[in-house]
Task: inverse folding
C-alpha cells in the first residue's frame, strides 16, 4: 500500500485569514483594504443604501466634499458590523492596512485584542501614529503579517482547476 503524504504547499491559518482580508479588499471600489472562525468580512465602501460616488482621490482642502474621504466606510468598520452581534471580544482582526485612528477606536470599543496587518504604508501620518498610541494604551497586540511557506495564492475562477 502506497503511503499518502500531506501537501507541502498548504496554507497556514494566518496566511488563510490574511488571504481572506486581501480577497475582501478586492470588493472595494476604492482605487487606492471567534476562535479560528471568520466572524465578519469587510471592505472599503460607501454606507449601505448610499449612492456610489465617483472616486476623486484629490485630498485638497479646496473641495473636501468632492472626494471619498468624508464618506467611505473602512473595511474594519464593515467587518465589525458584519459580525452581526457576535461576541468579538478577545478576537483578532486581519487587515491589509494598519488601521487609521477612527478604526482603532472601533477596534478598541469592540474589545478586539489583536490586529494583524499586511502593510503600514501610512506609518508616518498623524492618524496612524494616533492609532498606534491608542491601540498600545488599550493593550491591543499589533503584529505585521509574516507569510509562511505559502507566499502567494492564485485563485482560478474559471472552474477548470476543480
Result:
Amino acid at each position: 500500500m502506497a503511503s499518502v503524504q500531506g501537501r507541502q504547499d498548504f496554507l497556514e491559518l494566518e496566511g488563510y485569514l490574511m488571504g481572506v482580508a486581501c480577497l475582501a479588499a478586492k470588493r472595494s471600489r476604492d482605487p487606492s483594504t471567534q476562535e479560528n472562525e471568520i466572524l465578519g468580512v469587510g471592505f472599503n465602501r460607501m454606507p449601505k443604501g448610499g449612492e456610489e460616488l465617483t472616486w476623486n482621490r484629490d485630498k485638497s482642502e479646496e473641495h473636501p466634499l468632492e472626494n471619498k474621504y468624508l464618506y467611505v466606510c473602512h473595511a474594519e468598520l464593515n467587518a465589525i458590523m458584519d459580525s452581526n452581534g457576535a461576541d468579538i471580544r478577545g478576537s483578532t482582526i486581519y487587515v491589509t492596512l494598519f488601521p487609521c485612528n477612527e478604526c482603532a477606536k472601533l477596534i478598541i470599543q469592540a474589545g478586539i485584542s489583536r490586529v494583524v496587518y499586511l502593510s503600514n504604508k501610512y506609518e508616518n501620518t498623524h492618524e496612524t501614529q494616533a492609532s498606534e498610541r491608542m491601540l498600545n494604551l488599550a493593550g491591543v497586540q499589533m503584529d505585521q503579517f509574516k507569510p509562511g511557506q505559502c507566499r502567494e495564492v492564485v485563485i482560478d475562477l474559471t472552474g477548470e482547476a476543480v
About this structure: Strands lie at 92-97, 114-119, 141-144. The two ends are 27 Å apart (CA to CA).
